Amino acid sequence: MSNEPPALKHVIEAALLVAGRPLNLDALLGLFDEIERPERSEMRAALDELAEDFANRGIELKETASGFRIQVRASVSERVSRLFEERPQRYSRALLETLALIAYRQPLTRGEIEDVRGVSVSSNIMKTLQDRGWVRVVGHRDVPGRPALYATTREFLDYFGLKSLDELPTLAELRDIDSINVEIDFDGAEEAVAEAVAEHAAAEGDAMDSIEDDGDDRPQAASSS
Amino acid sequence: MSNEPPALKHVIEAALLVAGRPLNLDALLGLFDEIERPERSEMRAALDELAEDFANRGIELKETASGFRIQVRASVSERVSRLFEERPQRYSRALLETLALIAYRQPLTRGEIEDVRGVSVSSNIMKTLQDRGWVRVVGHRDVPGRPALYATTREFLDYFGLKSLDELPTLAELRDIDSINVEIDFDGAEEAVAEAVAEHAAAEGDAMDSIEDDGDDRPQAASSS
Amino acid sequence: MTEPAPENTTPEQAEMPFAVVQGAPVLQLPRDLYIPPDALEVFLEAFEGPLDLLLYLIKRQNLDVLDIPIAEITRQYMEYIDLMKDLRLELAAEYLVMAAMLAEIKSRMLLPRPVESEDEDDPRAELVRRLQEYERYKQAAEDIDALERLERDVLVTQVDFSERKIVRTVAEVTLQEMLIAFKEVLAHAEKYAHHQVEAEPLSLRQRMSDVLAAVRENEYRPFTSLFNAEEGRMGVVVTFLALLELIRESLIEIVQSEPYAPIHVKARAGRVTEDEEDSDEQ
């Protein structure tokens, strides 16, 4: 560092950067003994220079009621805000299993999830899944305790890039695939579903016709809001 | 302000100014999503540019153990510290000697510090060092009484502007009493320098010089108070 | 570090010139300066113990730590000890231990020494080792004190950023991760025969959820309103199957007041719980 005394604007800059509060003209002049103290006009000129130096930078000089302060420009504010993010933790295996069970077996209760997983499901997991908007309560099973019935949401489908649950591999496919490739040909899966439905439907043949006529006038309201 | 995205160095500058803590390379890279994330080399280059921008200013970019920070240079700090009524705390020789022993010889016990200093070390000193976060207990020596083993912390390095213990000032050589009668030859002099500290013997050069100079070459030894 | 106050003559050895002439020690010792008693007290308290005091005595006379004139140094040391006693300064035990050590070394120095003396035979060796050891850390302490440090020498910048956006991030997960997790549940579940997870059309499950979400327990909903013709025949079939499954699982009730009257659907569940209200907001 050279031995020249630092330029006035750089003293001001340093002061504003450490002060932790806005500094007015008097506070800035107070940094100097009377003998060396710059004129107010010099101080103003130095502040103007400083403001110019900050053009195109991530910070700017701002004059507020209580004085001058240096602040982060809006243009970098959002990026810099990331410093204050809480680092997300990875979801636990238990959470993923629970989510998958809800997806494949919905609607079902927590007790039913626990039956399949063989271990209890923490309230935290259910809360996280609901906070995340992937799972919601769609009703209650009419048994003692009236447990909530959980189902996946449209957000769940959106997040995983699915148009519908049918795009998930069937259980049979899941069993066979060693390492699941998400880009598997889902068309085959859809066909399998369609066939299953058709079979089911054929068995209930009679009922189907009458319903068809009934369903004209109302849009299906059930999709999640 | 133009609509161009802010230069990388200006994002770094803004981030370091608001972070309230030193930021390492990873923390800075974390400001960006994977897609837009600069290379480490780009980040380093931007940091270098920033340091250059600060060359004749009242602030400087400093890398310490925890990462990078922007600090007000010593040459401007004195003036700027007029903003604060509180004077920085002064530390007694006893405390500094204790700190030095821990820094160079860590980990070691209070008894071992007392052996070298020839006087007892007050509990107050140990408490102050720990309260400041410069020293912590890292274990216990496996001898009767199981005395605590002390070591320095990252905060210690940050506070004294060091990147690692290697950057501590070189410890003076020990000379052998035999050397009184021998032509001065320090090559074989004591190597029992503290275990935790890297040896700077080579960098130190002629041991005689360092003793004769007796600290003259240290940066600004006596000016600041 | 501060400049020493003139009359205090604080023992800052670092400020003393250091010019040892090896082999030709300066025997002409400078006379002790007169120190007023009150200043002396401050002076003595400035020492960090007997090693520090000894180092001061040695350095003050430009002597090398490696070649201490023990008799002379011991005499001076004892003078200070006596002074401290006279002034009734609280004298740490360490000072007396050192006095004893010096006296012992002095007496051993008077004994004739073998010509080929090993250094461990030099009665001063242990003292020299301790003095050197202490001195290097005393120096190290001064060096550390001289480092540019926060607060005293450099100030950390901190720009207020209270207007920052609070960004809440959530963990990310891939479909693949979820499926792998699920596969393991299945493997686990299959070990228990009574928990067979069957293959069935997922669209049916989804539709069941949708229907269940759409019906209320205390509100009869027209049966037909649950169907969407735009979905075509297949969609209608799926909805119907979902309704049948929901009835089978006793999750909904179908009500018809009289033959051919409109059919209504309501949830079997009783009151709407808070859970439900919450989830409905999404």
Structural features, described:
The complex is a heterotrimer, with 2 copies of chain A (225 residues) and 1 copy of chain C (282 residues). Chain A has helices at residues 8-19, 25-29, 40-53, 74-81, 93-105, 110-117, 123-131, 154-159, 171-176, 186-203, 205-214, and strands at 59-64, 67-72, 108-109, 135-140, 148-152. In chain A, helix 1 crosses helix 3. The radius of gyration of chain A is 32 Å and the shape is rod-shaped. Chain A is built from 11 helices and 5 strands, in the order H-H-H-E-E-H-H-E-H-H-E-E-H-H-H-H. Chain A is mainly alpha-helical and 225 residues long. Mean pLDDT of chain A is 78; it is low at 179-225. The longest helix of chain A is centred in the last third of the chain and has 18 residues, at 186-203. Chain A has a 3-stranded antiparallel β-sheet with strand order 3-5-4. With 282 residues, chain C is mainly alpha-helical. Helices cover 46% and strands 4% of the residues of chain C. Chain C has 9 helices and 4 strands; from the N terminus they run H-H-H-H-H-E-H-H-E-H-E-E-H. In chain C, strand 3 and strand 4 (264-267) form a beta hairpin. In chain C, helix 2 (50-60) crosses helix 5, helix 3 (70-86) packs antiparallel against helix 4 and helix 7 (202-214) crosses helix 8 (232-248). Chain C is rod-shaped. The two termini of chain C are 66 Å apart.
